[in-house]
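Thread amino acids onto this structure.
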C-alpha cells in the first residue's frame, strides 16, 4: 500500500513536470499580450489564436495588475461571455502572482462549474519598463493534462490507521460476542483456502463479526461476490466457481496461506475486548488488512504479518 508521503512525492514530481511543460508557451503568450493591454479585442484575438493550437488548455484570460479581468474567457469553440470586469483577487491561485511571483502553477482545486479537479497557471505580463501590467491565466482540466511522471509503485509498507474515536473511547465497556463464523471458523477457513488455491479467488476479506466474506476473482476482477455464513461453511460452495489453478501472479507462497489464516484465528480469539473484527488477504500484492474492535486498522505485507506474534498485538 502506497504511503501518503510517497504519493505526495509522486504528485510533486508530476506538478513540476507540468509546470516546466507549460512555461515556454505561457511566457511567449504573455509577451504577445504585453503591447495590447489596453485593447480587449486584440487580446482576445491573441488568446483565440493560441487556443486553436493549445493541446490541453480549457480557458485563457488576461487580468490587469489589480486582478480584474480584461477579457472574456477564451475557449476552443468561442468565448465564455460576461467575464470582463470579474475580480479574481480572492482566488487562491492569484495570491502568489500578486505578491510578485512571475510564474505559478496552482494547487489542484475543484472547479466551480464542472466540479472537477483543475489547475490554473498564472504568468506575469510586463510593460516596456519591466513593471507588471497584468497577468495571463490559463485553466486546465486534470483529465486533459498529460501524465508526465513515473507510474506509482505500490510499496508494501506497514500502515496503522486510527478509526472512530467514539468506538475507541468505549472499548473497555464492550466484549466480543460469538458470531456464527466463530463457531465454524475452521470449516470457513478451509473453504476460503480452497477458493483461493483452486477457484480463482485472489483477494478475500473475512468479516468475522458479521459472518460473511467478500471475494474478488481473477476471471472477474472488477466485481466482487459476498458469501454468507451458510455458503462459507458449506464445502459444496466451491462447485459454484470454475476450477482454476493458483493464480500465476500470486506472490504469497501456497504454504503460507494456512499460516496467515491461523494467525487471523488467533487474533480473533486471543482477547475478549481487543479482537479482530475483519481481515483480508490479497495473494497478488501480498498485503494483509486487519480491523480490530478498537476500530484500528493495519495494512502490511504478509511476511511481516507472520513475523509478529500475539504479544506484539496485545502487549503481553
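Threaded sequence (316 positions):
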Amino acid at each position: 500500500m502506497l504511503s501518503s508521503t510517497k504519493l505526495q512525492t509522486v504528485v510533486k514530481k508530476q506538478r513540476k513536470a507540468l509546470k516546466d511543460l507549460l512555461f515556454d508557451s505561457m511566457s511567449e503568450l504573455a509577451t504577445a499580450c504585453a503591447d495590447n493591454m489596453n485593447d480587449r479585442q486584440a487580446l482576445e484575438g491573441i488568446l483565440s489564436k493560441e487556443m486553436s493550437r493549445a493541446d490541453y488548455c480549457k480557458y485563457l484570460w488576461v487580468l490587469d495588475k489589480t486582478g480584474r479581468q480584461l477579457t472574456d474567457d477564451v475557449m476552443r469553440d468561442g468565448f465564455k461571455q460576461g467575464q470582463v470586469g470579474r475580480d479574481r483577487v480572492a482566488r487562491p491561485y492569484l495570491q502568489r502572482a500578486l505578491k510578485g511571483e512571475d510564474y505559478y502553477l496552482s494547487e489542484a482545486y475543484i472547479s466551480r462549474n464542472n466540479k472537477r479537479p483543475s489547475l490554473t497557471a498564472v504568468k506575469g505580463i510586463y510593460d516596456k519598463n519591466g513593471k507588471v501590467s497584468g497577468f495571463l491565466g490559463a485553466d486546465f482540466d486534470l483529465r486533459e493534462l498529460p501524465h508526465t511522471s513515473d507510474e506509482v509503485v505500490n510499496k508494501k509498507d506497514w500502515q496503522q490507521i486510527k478509526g472512530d474515536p467514539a468506538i475507541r473511547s468505549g472499548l473497555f465497556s464492550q466484549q466480543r460476542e460469538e458470531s456464527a463464523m466463530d463457531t465454524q471458523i475452521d470449516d470457513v477457513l478451509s473453504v476460503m483456502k480452497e477458493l483461493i488455491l483452486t477457484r480463482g479467488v485472489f483477494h478475500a476479506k473475512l468479516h468475522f463479526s458479521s459472518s460473511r466474506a467478500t471475494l474478488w476473482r481473477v476471471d472477474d476482477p472488477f466485481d466482487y461476490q459476498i458469501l454468507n455464513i451458510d455458503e462459507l461453511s458449506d464445502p459444496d460452495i466451491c462447485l459454484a466457481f470454475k476450477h482454476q489453478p493458483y493464480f500465476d501472479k500470486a506472490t504469497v507462497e501456497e504454504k503460507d496461506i494456512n499460516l496467515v489464516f491461523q494467525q487471523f484465528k488467533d487474533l480473533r480469539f486471543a482477547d475478549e475486548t481487543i479482537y479482530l473484527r475483519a481481515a483480508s488477504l490479497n495473494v497478488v500484492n501480498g498485503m494483509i488488512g486487519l480491523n480490530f474492535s478498537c476500530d484500528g486498522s493495519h495494512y502490511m505485507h504478509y511476511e511481516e504479518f507472520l513475523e509478529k506474534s500475539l504479544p506484539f498485538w496485545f502487549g503481553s
